[in-house]
Each structure stands twice: as structure tokens, then as C-alpha cells.
Design brief:
The protein is mainly α. The chain has 7 helices and no strands.
Length: 172
């Protein structure tokens, strides 16, 4: 039983020591949080539900994948095949966000319009979600946001484990 506990603790420590993962997720979280600020500044309304929605400015998925890819490049080298894989994955995610998902959202908007015009013929109990994808500018801002958060975080702070060690909460 102790071997299992030691192995799981060791894996948890390894995850805490992964600066690329931590800062990629931090970039995603901060991008998602910034949607609340964009909503407040540009639409002048307080709508915390935007924190749980897809779509909008900036793309948090783009921030996640570009921040992670940039971190991989920084740690392993920008000529490493793993960086190539991370970059390719990032391009696919961003293409999907501004292409397929955006088209699905626009289609949902048209279907919702039809449902309003012919309410008796509609079998929808509620409107389809329209905010699915992103405009190209939302993806671009998210893709710049990711490395802007992740790279300084990795360079100046490091992993969550390193941060916990610096402030004296953990000694490994």
C-alpha cells in the first residue's frame, strides 16, 4: 500500500513541477477571466456567466495552446520535434475555433431565427447556443496572450512546485 501512495505522491509532485502545463493553464484562465473585463468595458454590463462560456474575446483555447507550445519550445528548444507537434496542435485548435466552431455558431443563429418565425413547427425546447467559435481577431489576440503569460511565468517564476518552495510552503 505504501508503494502506491509513494507513486501517486511522486506523480503529483511531477505535475506540480511542470511549469509548461501550469503556465499554459494560467494563460487559459487569465484569458477566460479577461472576457469578463471585455464584457464590462466594451458592452458595459456585468455578466459573470461569460466566465463559463465559449467564444468571445480573447480565445482562451488559443491562449492555452500557444502558451503551452511556446513553453515547450522554450524548455526543449524550438527545433525539437515535440515543439513541432505542440505548434501543429495549436494551429489545428485555432483553425477549428475560427472555422468549424464559428460556422456552427453562425448556423445555430440562423436556426434560432427560423424557430422564432415558425414557433409551432419548431421542436426546440430552448435556443441553440450561438457563441461557439471565434472571429479571427479573437483567435489572434488569444494566440498572442498565451505566450505573453506563459513565457515570463516560466522564466521568472517557474513551476508551481518551485513557487511553493520559494515561499517556504514545500521542501522537496
Amino acid at each position: 500500500m505504501n508503494i502506491i501512495n509513494f507513486a501517486s505522491e511522486s506523480q503529483f509532485i511531477n505535475i506540480l513541477d511542470n511549469a509548461v502545463l501550469a503556465w499554459g493553464l494560467a494563460a487559459c484562465g487569465l484569458a477566460q477571466f479577461s472576457k469578463l473585463l471585455f464584457e464590462l468595458i466594451f458592452k458595459q454590463r456585468w455578466r459573470p456567466s461569460v466566465l463559463l462560456e465559449t467564444g468571445g474575446m480573447p480565445s482562451s483555447h488559443s491562449a492555452l495552446v500557444t502558451g503551452t507550445a511556446a513553453g515547450v519550445g522554450l524548455q526543449l528548444g524550438f527545433n525539437d520535434p515535440i515543439f513541432a507537434l505542440a505548434s501543429t496542435f495549436a494551429f489545428v485548435v485555432m483553425y477549428d475555433a475560427s472555422g468549424i466552431r464559428r460556422s456552427a455558431g453562425l448556423t445555430a443563429a440562423k436556426v434560432n431565427q427560423i424557430a422564432k418565425v415558425i414557433p409551432n413547427e419548431s421542436s426546440f425546447e430552448s435556443a441553440l447556443k450561438e457563441s461557439l467559435g471565434h472571429t479571427k481577431i479573437e483567435v489572434l489576440v488569444g494566440s498572442l496572450f498565451g505566450p505573453s503569460v506563459a513565457l515570463p511565468g516560466i522564466v521568472f517564476i517557474g513551476s508551481p512546485l518551485h513557487l511553493l518552495q520559494m515561499i517556504g510552503l514545500v521542501s522537496v
